[in-house]
Design brief:
Number of strands: 0
Largest sheet: none
Oligomer: single chain
Radius of gyration: 12 Å
Distance between the termini: 12 Å
Helix content: over 70%
Strand content: under 5%
Shape: elongated
Order of helices and strands: HHH
Length: about 55
């Protein structure tokens, strides 16, 4: 049950990183200024979120 909730939460956090990375890079506290870097991090988060459900 906890794995399911964690997987869904991590996937929800990662999806906006894939869809609109420009909003994240425009924030003043953002250390990563590359949109492609943000997308890659979002993809990794979504994959790990889905994988955590099945592990």
């Amino acid at each position: 049950m906890v794995n399911l909730i964690f997987g869904i939460l991590v996937a929800i956090i990662g999806i906006p990183m894939i869809i609109s990375p420009k909003k994240i890079t425009e924030r003043p506290n953002c250390k990563i200024k590359s949109e492609m870097g943000i997308r890659i991090c979002g993809i990794i988060l979504v994959v790990l979120g889905i994988a955590s459900i099945f592990i």
